[in-house]
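Summary of Year 1 activities. Much of the first year was spent building the evaluation harness for sequence design. The harness presents a backbone, in tokenized form, and records the residue chosen at every position. We chose the following record to illustrate the format because it has been used consistently in internal testing since the harness was completed.
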């Protein structure tokens, strides 16, 4: 068995959870910051746009245009590309698993759906004061009551959204 098989195969849930869980104390120890991904996307925007118009980008969190969060996000993206490459996947593909198997939409319509979904997720992360990883991993690890409530909200609306997608986009077809 080659090393690529170990990296690209399905990892047990407990191993992936342990690796992610270890990031929380490592980030606190070395950087004194909490784990979160949505701020990485904001850092990406901040590094690309010299003077963003939103006041939020003027906060001290974004004073450094090249913060560690930007490199964390780039690491997530390049790591997923590397795993796909080692598994023999294509560099670019319009196949999105179950979504493109069940929905026979033009690629432009799928792209708009994904952009709209990403926008809504980003808006939700801003309104909630962080993303699911920030609240559910970092917030729960530091025993923050608000993160517990927001995590329950994420889970409840995730179940509702998954069932709505199954019902309305996949015509109620059992997955």
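For this record, the design step produced the sequence shown next.
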């Amino acid at each position: 068995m080659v090393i690529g098989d170990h990296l690209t195969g399905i990892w047990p849930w407990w191993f992936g959870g342990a690796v992610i869980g270890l990031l929380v104390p490592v980030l606190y120890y070395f950087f004194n910051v909490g784990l979160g991904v949505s701020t990485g996307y904001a850092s990406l925007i901040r590094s690309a746009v010299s003077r963003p118009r939103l006041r939020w980008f003027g906060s001290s969190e974004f004073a450094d245009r090249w913060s560690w969060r930007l490199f964390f996000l780039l690491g997530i993206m390049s790591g997923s590309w590397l795993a796909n490459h080692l598994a023999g996947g294509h560099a670019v593909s319009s196949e999105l698993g179950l979504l493109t198997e069940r929905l026979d939409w033009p690629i432009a319509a799928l792209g708009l759906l994904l952009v709209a979904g990403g926008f809504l997720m980003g808006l939700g992360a801003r309104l909630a004061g962080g993303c699911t990883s920030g609240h559910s991993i970092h917030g729960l690890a530091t025993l923050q009551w608000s993160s517990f409530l927001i995590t329950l909200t994420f889970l409840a609306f995730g179940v509702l959204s998954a069932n709505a997608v199954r019902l309305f986009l996949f015509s109620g077809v059992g997955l």
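The helical segments are 3-8, 13-31, 38-48, 68-86, 98-102, 107-128, 132-141, 145-169. Quantitative recovery figures across the full test set are reported in Table 2.
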